[in-house]
Amino acid sequence: MLLMFALDLTKWGYQVVVPGYIFVSAGIFLLGIIIIAIGGYYFRKAKTTVNPMTPEKSTELVTKGIYNYSRNPMYIGFLTWLIAWAVFLGNLINLLFLPIFIVLVNRLYIIPEEKALEELFKQEFSEYKNRVGRWL
Length: 136
Hints:
By secondary structure, this protein is mainly alpha-helical. The protein has four helices and no strands. The chain has helices spanning 2-10, 21-46, 73-89, 97-131.
């Protein structure tokens, strides 16, 4: 978000004003909050760690609720925040940060998390992985 803002300050790129951009970006941001909150709720309900830096501390594989549709809904929520920010700023060049975010999240968080979950939950995670896509 900071890089997007810094780039916007340079006025480099192509400005596009989306009609009602404040409301549109606020709606997208709110959607991200809801997705993240629902994901966090299911982690708290399972009494397991939500910290992406310590997936080995997971005590339960969360597969219910929103996790029945995506293995990584919280990262999808973060992506919606970036989309909201890009809409708010209105600079098309900021859309280039979205695939960069996806690549970084996959390499830094999702792949290590999934390796840890495979070790901890073996067959259960394998079945879950075959049944539910990442969507990110």
